[in-house]
Amino acid sequence: MRTSSQLSAVVGVVVFAAGTSVLLGRRAPERLQVPSGDLPHFTASGKLQRPLDWQSWVMVGASLGLTYDSTRPAPVAGASPRTFHTIFVQPWAYRHVQETGEFAENTMFILAMSDASQDADPARGGTYEGERMLAEIHLKKKDLSASGWGFYAFGGGDSAAMIPANASCYDCHTRNGDFDQVFTQFYPPLRHLEQTRTP
Amino acid sequence: MRTSSQLSAVVGVVVFAAGTSVLLGRRAPERLQVPSGDLPHFTASGKLQRPLDWQSWVMVGASLGLTYDSTRPAPVAGASPRTFHTIFVQPWAYRHVQETGEFAENTMFILAMSDASQDADPARGGTYEGERMLAEIHLKKKDLSASGWGFYAFGGGDSAAMIPANASCYDCHTRNGDFDQVFTQFYPPLRHLEQTRTP
């Protein structure tokens, strides 16, 4: 166990350091602590493996019942008025974008969904999150598609194939994501990023 | 800058290690990386200082318009149907409770509030978080009160005095918090903790 964990840590360092050599000089001790679980891992057939500890990642935005089209259901399942969406990103990727103004390779945004609950005491009004389910991952990796990103929809499985690059989610994010195809307009701590989409 | 940061790191290690010596043998490298900013700091007059990087902490629960009493406004300002609450805890404190089943001394829960927004494209339904404001901190520290916790309400200031221990928030959390005076019943990744309140 110890050996495996040490090996993973080394893999993490190598992959991450490749994209942040400039930063390494400044805050080396923190930078070298990228846990392997905070990087994307793939099966032999190229499916993205489900990260394990994503609920401890940085939560950049919560929403309730958010939909992108009033005339039909959102492409993401579960966008009912009673569904919370919470978006998580790896801590190292969050620090990277705050310090450099760019999303690093291997950045993963996780869309989690939970039913809006209201039954537990002492709640007397409003709604809170039920159990969270990992629904989708948006991964930045330049070989995945022309956009430089890939979408993965997880059901209950441990891994997911990439959604084909001609699916509507890619086009929608390119046209509507305020920053580098990400909906930073919905994420309080990322709203300051300079807008990159064409109005 | 470097010297100050190194000094802070040492302070962090000392305070944290005192409560987790059993764990240190198992995962020492991570345990020694508690940034000073992830511990409570006080002014000379005993006010709790506002943490700076709390939006990168672990978000344990989101809610919209949550209130605890249907007959009057909640004791926390802003509990309107259009206010998101998001609750953050230090990453080291989150790992500690997941590994030991107990909240460590110096654990801080931050209640952030944000207006429910709905104007940014491509939103066509539902609401998302506006700007987040740090509203309250719930700090575990045994000398603060008989309950072992202290509440601090932040306005726009950089520090806040503790709310007196006879205020209703203490009694409400003692009676209604599922685990150690914390409303874990509203927090998906902490709901598994063994209930400690008297039914």
Question: How would you name the oligomeric state of the polypeptide chains in this document?
Answer: homodimer
Taking pLDDT < 50 over at least 5 consecutive residues as the criterion, the unreliable ranges of chain A are 1-30
User: Which radius of gyration of chain A do the C-alpha atoms yield?
Assistant: 18 Å
Estimate the global geometry of chain A from the Cα principal axes: globular
What string, H for helix and E for strand, traces the elements of chain A in order?
A: HHEEEHEEEEEH
Number of beta strands of chain A:
8
- The percent range for strand residues of chain A is 15-25%
Average pLDDT confidence of chain A is: 82
Write the layout of secondary structure elements.
The structure is a homodimer of 199-residue chains.
Chain A: H1 2-19, H2 21-31, E1 48-49, E2 58-67, E3 83-89, H3 91-100, E4 108-117, E5 125-129, E6 133-140, E7 149-153, E8 159-160, H4 168-176
Antiparallel strand pairs in A: 1-8, 2-3, 3-4, 4-5, 4-6, 6-7
